[in-house]
Amino acid sequence: MNAPALAFRSVTAGYRNRSVLDGIDFEIAEGEFVSVIGPNGSGKSTMLRTATGLIRPRQGSVELFGRGVPSLKPRERAALIGVVPQKLESPMAFTVGEIVTFGRSASRSLWGIPDPKDSDAAERAMIFTNVLELKDRLFNELSAGEQQRAALAMALAQEPRIIMLDESIAHLDINHSQEVLRILMNINREEKITVLLVSHDLNLAAQVADRMLLMDGGRLVSNGSPGEVMREEQLSRVYGCELRVRRDPYGGHPVVSGTLDAQMRRPKTRMRLHVISGGGVGIELFRRLRIEGYDVTAGVLNRLDSDAEAARALDIPCALEQPFSPVGPEAYEQARLMVGQADGVVVGPVPFGSGNLVNLELAAMALAAGKPVWMASDIAGRDYTPAREAAGTAEKLRSGGAVEWSGIHELALLLQREAGARDA
Ligand code: ADP
Ligand code: MG
To answer: Which residues, by Cβ under 5 Å, contact ligand 2, an ion?
Structure first.
């Protein structure tokens, strides 16, 4: 077995006074094409800097082709890794040919005379990246796409065994980013050069990679084929918004998109939801459920509760009780009728005391009547009843099939799934 092209073993790394990477573990085999995705600030660039030796790991080890990265001399490192920056800046008026020849500086002194082997490598790199005809043009006068290809040629000219790119295609239009990706795929397949591509364009990353690494908050949260990594729930959780994943009809790779359109489209079947809330947690819930097209009722709420205010403003029918009073029989009866007419009950992340515990019992009643209940997780942590009755009822709900949710995005996804099942 060959040593992996790149291996991170339990790597913790960061900057002077802050830890960023947290126990990163992965291997990339020689010849693989791997893309790294993750939200802004998740540690992608830091990982790349650690891979190239710019940052030393605090714990764990980083190996390139079986050799510890910190022990490599800069020249040895440059002979193994070609780095393509996001934007290459040329401080002086260099031609493309000159810039690409600099790529050879790893194998000779910086201002030494290029020998024939150097010019062969530079020429091959320029042919691969389709910049040979730009050879005598000034780098600074090229378009963004041309500059990116020249930067790639420069990295390639040093004949590295692995190429690493950090958002290098981020600012290119779709035509030029596809062109750079095509070149990378060719380099990967024909020259067997390993590619590590950091990209915040999930779809491009999924289109070209054999394997994907998903970063979140300095951790590697998923490592697998594009299909395994680009899972709807996982991406929605990591990026903190609702995302849809489909299959590309031509390539079969996963394609992700936002759900703004789905939110604006009302479900065919009107679903009526009764919401149990209070103390302000209903404000976001009401608005969101309305936007998603559900009919909403609420209560029991106290008249002065900000949720009662919000319900009134949104014309949401609401069972109301006098301020500072426990739920009485009249309001309870009103809420019971609302639950009876609802298709399901949503329990918000509201604290429960003896005054509003009956609201949770309404949810239990709905579940017993065969209606779905979606309850915010960790009711036990918000149970202020003397005998912890809310926690007990929540446990009953859970074992009876109530579905737990922990953020409004997750709730919306769960509800859409239910509405979809009803439509089908
Ligand atoms: P990404 O490339 O995924 O957007 P980065 O690796 O750039 O993420 O950043 C990860 C975290 O490290 C962020 O919280 C960022 O603020 C921090 N960070 C990045 N560069 C530095 C630096 N030079 N000094 C201190 N902190 C940094
Ligand atoms: Mg970055």
So the answer is: 44-45
